[in-house]
């Protein structure tokens, strides 16, 4: 089992949402925290909350994970302060939705740079020193239900999250000889600030239909604190796939063992979302 107590844990995206909740949950298990995010104010609030709870937070500094040079500088500072870390948790990410005829190149590029290249930069900078230290460890990559399923309008987001799933699948076996475990977290709907920052190409977020859709989404969303507890438990038990809600677990098994049901569900969901956000009824594709 992976124990957080007495371990140094790097967490990206720690300023809010799931990242903050994971940081506080890891702190409650006795981890020493190394925190980073692009949002300075939120990051300091997370660090202050963790310290108030008795956790050691030797490093809490801003970095843009999509910028390789910033991640290298972060790693240099962290290794000088605490040495190699024991647990790497790639939580930082953004969400971009839209149909291919509405998405811009900038939206595609930004999403891939943050959601895929960001974790890769962190892995490049922090995992080799973990290997050299010879203490084992754990790498945790937060993907998404969109890294498992062909969710409608999610092409850029799924590109990043499916890519991160592939990286994790390889590292799961490559790092085993070094005693480093790998976990892939696949959350469904989460009640985090990301809901309010989703970039939907070609859609007015203030439109009534969009607001109703977001309200419906939130009614099914899991609180980040509950999701964080699932993540911590899954990592402690060295689970490769970690689900934060039962619906995603069921969907994953349906996809693997009953593909016709999965295909029907994705087509129906695609049709329903298109109708909901555009007001165009159309006919479900066959």
Descriptive key words:
Rossmann fold, seven-stranded parallel β-sheet, single chain, alpha/beta, disordered C terminus, 9 strands
How would you describe what is shown here?
This protein is α/β, with parallel strands linked by helices and about 290 residues long. The protein has a single domain (about 10-260), classed as NAD(P)-binding Rossmann-like Domain (Rossmann fold). The protein has helices spanning about 15-30, 40-50, 70-80, 105-135, 155-175, 195, 210-220, 225-235, 245-255, 260-280, and strands spanning about 10, 30-35, 60, 85-90, 95, 135-140, 180-185, 200, 240-245. The chain has a seven-stranded parallel β-sheet with strand order 3-2-1-4-6-7-9, with helices on both faces. Strands 5-8 form a two-stranded parallel sheet. Mean pLDDT is about 90; it is low at about 280-285.
Give the N-to-C terminal Cα separation: 46 Å
Structural class: alpha/beta
In total, the number of strands is 9
Give the SSE string.
EHEHEHEEHEHEHEHHEHH
Mean pLDDT over the full residue set: 91
Low-confidence stretches: 281-286
| Helical content class | 40-55%
Radius of gyration computed on alpha carbons: 19 Å
CATH class: Alpha Beta
Question: Which CATH-level-2 architecture?
Answer: 3-Layer(aba) Sandwich
Sheet with the most strands: spatial strand order:
3-2-1-4-6-7-9
If you consult CATH, what is the topology?
Answer: Rossmann fold
Number of domains: 1
Topology:
Blueprint: E1 8-12, H1 17-28, E2 32-37, H2 40-52, E3 59-62, H3 68-82, E4 87-90, E5 96-97, H4 105-133, E6 137-142, H5 155-174, E7 180-186, H6 194-197, E8 199-200, H7 208-219, H8 224-236, E9 241-243, H9 246-257, H10 259-278
Parallel strand pairs: 1-2, 1-4, 2-3, 4-6, 5-8, 6-7, 7-9
């Amino acid at each position: 089992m992976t124990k957080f107590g007495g371990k140094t844990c790097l967490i990206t995206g720690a300023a809010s949402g799931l990242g903050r909740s994971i940081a506080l949950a890891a702190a409650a298990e006795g981890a020493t925290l190394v925190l980073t995010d692009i949002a300075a104010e939120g990051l300091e609030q997370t660090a202050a909350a963790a310290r108030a709870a008795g956790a050691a937070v030797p490093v809490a500094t801003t970095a843009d994970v999509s910028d390789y040079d910033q991640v290298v500088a972060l790693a240099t500072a962290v290794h000088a302060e605490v040495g190699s870390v024991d647990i790497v948790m790639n939580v930082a990410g953004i969400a971009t939705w839209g149909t291919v005829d509405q998405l811009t190149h900038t939206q595609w590029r930004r999403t891939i740079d943050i959601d895929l290249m960001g974790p890769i930069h962190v892995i490049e900078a922090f995992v080799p020193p973990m290997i050299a230290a010879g203490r084992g460890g754990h790498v945790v990559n937060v993907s998404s239900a969109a890294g498992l399923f062909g969710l409608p309008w999610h092409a850029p987001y799924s590109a990043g999250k499916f890519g991160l799933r592939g990286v994790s699948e390889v590292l799961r076996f490559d790092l085993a000889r070094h005693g480093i475990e790998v976990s892939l977290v696949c959350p469904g709907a989460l009640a985090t600030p990301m809901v309010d920052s989703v970039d939907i190409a070609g859609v007015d977020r203030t439109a009534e239909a969009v607001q109703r859709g977001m309200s419906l989404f939130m009614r099914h969303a899991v609180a980040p604190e509950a999701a964080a507890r699932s993540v911590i438990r899954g990592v402690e038990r060295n689970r490769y796939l970690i689900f934060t809600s039962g619906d995603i677990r069921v969907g994953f098994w349906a996809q693997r063992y009953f593909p016709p049901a999965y295909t029907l569900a994705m087509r129906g969901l695609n049709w329903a979302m298109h109708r909901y956000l555009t007001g165009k009824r159309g006919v479900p594709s066959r």
